[in-house]
Design a protein that fits this description.
12% of the residues lie in helices and 33% in strands. By secondary structure, the protein is mainly beta. Strands 2-9-8-7-18-11-14-15-17 form a nine-stranded mixed β-sheet, with helices on one face. 31% of the residues are buried.
Length: 248
């Protein structure tokens, strides 16, 4: 079932769903919006918390920068949940999406929050497997690793900084969650229009507003599982669903 509405002005928000209690492994529903002429597909993606590839793959015939008048834009806000156990943070890099399963308070129903992510570009990678959150950093500074300095200099950026102080120009964004994998963070970004693409050197980039939403909820030692499943399968009301993503 699709819901139809005109897209006017709305703020981005993390998607939060009650976890199914009937054996289903799907949450959410797809939507259709009719954009105003001031909205690109990337504006719509950010406002409705989906990534670049999610919205462009769902609307291959819609111009990214100038959707035609009265275009019906599909918003793929129905998600197949990752394999259980549903605890902590689970990231599927091919799906370019993070799922957070907060521990429910006594008497509350279990929920899941989901966010689009940027992942590692070709030639770089994010480790797969199990780890945990080891630290959180507000207004992080970034000492650029030698390997990344070398890459930028080889591409002609001779003046690429070796150090980025805290602030709006820092590629680490304003909030960063450090994982147990060496030099891997989940963090905001100063280039939010790339969220959902392959843009990083191994870290996982969130929209700044999503980083702000999840940052206060995350504590040290929360388990983190990183998987790479380009084909995901789920069940909803007795029917089988499958989605495929560009393999990493």
């Amino acid at each position: 079932v699709f819901s139809h509405y005109f897209l006017l002005v709305c703020s981005a928000h993390a998607e939060t769903f009650v976890l199914p209690a009937d054996g289903s492994t799907l949450v959410g529903k797809p939507k259709i919006v009719i954009p105003t002429q001031e909205n690109t597909l990337l504006d719509i993606a950010r406002q409705l918390d989906v990534g670049h590839h999610e919205i462009t793959w769902s609307n291959p015939d819609v111009d990214v920068w100038l959707p035609e008048k009265n275009a019906k834009v599909i918003i793929p806000t129905q998600y197949i949940l990752p394999p259980k156990p549903w605890t902590g943070i689970i990231i599927n890099i091919s799906q370019r999406r993070m799922f957070y399963f907060p521990p429910p308070a006594k008497g509350e129903t279990a929920k899941v929050m989901t966010f689009p992510l940027s992942i590692a570009r070709e030639g770089w990678s994010t480790p797969l497997g199990n780890t945990k959150v080891i630290a959180k950093h507000k207004d992080p500074a970034w000492f650029v690793p030698k390997s990344i300095q070398k890459e930028h200099k080889e591409s002609g950026e001779e003046d690429f900084p070796e150090y980025f102080p805290p602030g709006p120009d820092n590629p680490m964004g304003m909030l960063a969650i450090q994982l147990g994998f060496q030099s891997i963070f989940i963090h905001g970004t100063n280039r939010p229009w790339g969220v959902g693409m392959r843009t990083s050197h191994g870290c996982l980039h969130l929209y700044p507003e999503d980083a702000a939403a999840i940052f206060p909820m995350i504590n040290k030692n929360i388990p983190v599982r990183v998987i790479d499943e380009p084909i995901v399968v789920g069940i909803h009301q007795g029917q089988l669903y499958m989605a495929s993503y560009e393999p990493v």
